[in-house]
Amino acid sequence: MSKSKQVNLIEGSILKSLVMLAMPIVASSFLGTVYNITDMAWIGMLGSKAVAGVGVGGMYIWLSQGLSSLARMGGQVHVAQEIGAGRRKEAGEYAKAALQLVTVFGILFASISILFTRELVAVFGLGNAQAETYAVSYTRITCGMILFSYLAVVLTGIYTAQGDSKTPLKANFIGLVTNMILDPVLILGLGPFPRLEVTGAAVATVVAQCIVMIVMILGIVKDKSGQNVLRGICLNKMTGKKYYGGVCRIGIPTAIQGSMYCMISMVLTKMVASFGADAVAVQRVGGQVEALSWNMADGFAAAINAFVAQNYGAGKMDRVRRGYRISFWAAAIWGSMIMLMFLVLPVQISHVFFYEEDVIRLAVDYLIILGFGEAFMCVELMTVGALSGLGKTKLCSVISILFTGSRIPLAILLSSSVLALNGIWWALTSTSVAKGIVFTLTFLAVAGRYKRKELV
Prior knowledge:
Layout: H1 14-44, H2 48-84, H3 88-115, H4 117-122, H5 129-144, H6 147-161, H7 166-188, H8 198-221, H9 241-273, H10 277-313, H11 317-344, H12 346-353, H13 357-371, H14 374-389, H15 393-405, H16 407-415, H17 421-449
Helix pairs in contact: 1-7, 1-10, 2-3, 2-5, 2-6, 2-9, 2-10, 3-5, 3-6, 3-9, 5-8, 6-8, 7-8, 9-15, 9-16, 10-11, 10-13, 10-14, 11-13, 11-14, 12-13, 13-17, 14-17, 15-17, 16-17
């Protein structure tokens, strides 16, 4: 990694710094969206039962991301704050602790997934033998090989904390191309390859994740400038307790928030499943399309997180506040554009993934209803990144769990009315609107209280 790849976040133009850091991250997020949509488009050719089966596996991958987010957020925030304060050696120790922790987490989760695959799938009660078979196959492979994804996630966070978002972009691009090639080949059995269907999709995903990880590791190996804090760290040796503790202190609230969010979504998915496998398929595909907003918002969140953390470490709170305002409008405008797309083109979007008319009607309702909350969701995710950069992960966790948890009683109430399945979608949208507003007001209040440098 050359020095030019690291953006100076604590000096110079705020807009330029944010744009230079955010654009590769946003591009990486877009690649992630294309990556997921590519999978769903090919799997959709196998029918709604295959989509529902992959959806179940995807829920467990999502659940497991709480573990990787613990290491990523704890590592990313501390690395950025230490760099901002001029302590690069300590930044390297935090990076090392994060990578060691996520390796342990990945091995543990993979072991549980392989040993108890059928029991995990049975939780959703799909009620269709073919859908359950697809779910078992997809879950066993993708969750059983989750370590590649875990390491890639944490490496991305550490690269971003240093102001280098170009290397993760390069890695994700190569992974996307690999996945786009392998998907049709392995799913449909093109040329000499056998038709593996959902199993092929899982294999393609794991191979692509492995390649992403390898490319980022090569970025460390090839670095000759000495600017990358990952250069020279020895992962087979323990570091100090304070580094593990620091990563966990910042990361655990984020992990709890992410895991609770997923568990709440799993409860909602079980409710959706009571309306049939087609409804689950719509939720799964709709979520992937909706990723156009939340993946992009995640990109803004990662950029503002590193920007806020470095400037907080350097004691430059005025830059923090101005950087947030710029990111707020970027997230709000993007979310509004996605909202308009969902409201104007729901039928056309649905036809990309589904071929059964009954399922298309369900998908159209999903897109229209969820569309109203897209701008608020983008602002929410970006603001969580900013607050986390200040070390306020506990506060983020409390707010998120409170409002996301309210989706369950609200969904029960609305789905038992004439709204039926659409009542669940309205529960999601209304809480997204509320979270967007509350998180924005919270950041403004928290940032306004800082009058001096106050390290986490």
